[in-house]
Backbone:
C-alpha cells in the first residue's frame, strides 16, 4: 500500500462511503461487482471506487483519488471505476455535488428496459418529497433515461447536453444498466437513492398490474 492509500484509511469520507456501500449491498442494489461510488474531496478531485471491487466489501484503500480538468482524468495509482468519467461530469455540472452513487438494482434495470422514451414522469407519490426541491406529490418529477453504451465519455457528454436544458433532479437512469443518484452531502445522496428506488418500484408494480405506462 502506498502512502496516499494509507492516508485514506483515516479519511472520514472514505470510511463513511465504505459503510454506505455495505448498506447499499444489504439492499441488493450492487450485485456482483456492479455499481460504483464517489465522494468529492476538493473542487476538482474525488475519491472513486476502484474498478471491479465488490462494492459491499470496500475498504478505505479501495477509494482512489481522481482529479479532473474538463474531460481529462488523472488517477495517481490504481484503476478507478470504468464509469469515472460520468462521476467527474456530474461534479463539474454542479459544484455543490458532494457524492455520486451508482447502483444496479433489479427493479431499476427492468424498469429502464420497459420505458422506450428518454424520460419518465413521476407524479402523485408522496415519496417524491424525498428528492430535494420537491414540495408536493402534485409536482411532476422527471427521470432522464439514457441508452447504455460502453463509451462512458460519450454518455457523459449526453448528460451534459441534457443538463443544458434543465438540471437533472438528482438522478438518471441508464437503460438495461442502472441508476445514478447524487446529493449535496453523502446523507442526501443516500436519501435520493432510497427515494428513487421506491418511486421506480412503485411504477414498476403499477405497470405490472395495469400494463399501462
Ligand atoms: C458487472 S458490473 C459491470 C460494470 C458496471 O456497470 C459497474 O457499475 C461496475 O464497474 P466498475 O468499473 O465501477 O467496477
Ligand atoms: Zn454500472
Residues:
Amino acid at each position: 500500500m502506498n502512502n496516499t492509500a494509507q492516508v485514506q484509511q483515516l479519511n472520514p469520507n472514505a470510511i463513511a462511503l465504505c459503510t454506505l456501500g455495505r448498506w447499499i449491498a444489504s439492499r441488493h442494489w450492487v450485485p456482483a461487482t456492479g455499481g460504483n461510488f464517489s465522494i468529492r474531496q476538493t473542487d476538482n478531485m474525488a475519491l472513486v471506487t476502484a474498478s471491479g471491487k465488490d462494492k459491499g466489501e470496500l475498504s478505505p484503500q479501495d477509494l482512489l483519488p481522481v482529479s479532473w480538468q474538463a474531460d481529462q482524468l488523472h488517477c495517481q495509482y490504481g484503476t478507478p471505476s470504468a464509469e469515472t468519467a460520468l462521476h467527474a461530469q456530474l461534479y463539474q455540472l454542479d459544484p455543490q455535488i458532494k457524492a455520486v452513487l451508482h447502483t444496479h438494482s433489479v427493479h431499476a434495470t427492468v424498469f429502464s428496459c420497459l420505458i422506450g422514451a428518454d424520460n419518465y414522469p413521476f407524479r402523485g407519490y408522496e415519496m417524491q418529497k424525498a428528492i430535494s426541491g420537491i414540495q408536493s406529490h402534485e409536482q411532476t418529477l422527471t427521470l432522464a433515461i439514457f441508452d447504455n453504451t460502453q463509451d462512458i465519455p460519450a454518455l457523459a457528454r449526453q448528460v451534459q447536453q441534457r443538463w443544458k436544458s434543465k438540471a437533472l433532479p438528482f438522478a438518471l437512469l441508464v437503460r438495461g444498466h442502472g441508476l445514478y443518484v447524487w446529493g449535496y452531502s453523502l446523507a442526501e445522496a443516500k436519501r435520493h437513492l432510497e427515494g428513487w428506488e421506491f418511486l421506480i418500484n412503485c411504477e414498476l408494480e403499477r405497470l405490472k398490474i395495469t400494463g399501462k405506462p
Notes: The radius of gyration is 17 Å. Residues 3-210 form a domain with the L-fuculose-1-phosphate Aldolase fold (CATH 3.40.225.10). The chain has a mean pLDDT of 97. The pocket of L4RZE5RM (ligand 1) is lined by residues 32-36, 49, 51-52, 81-83, 102 (CB under 6 Å).
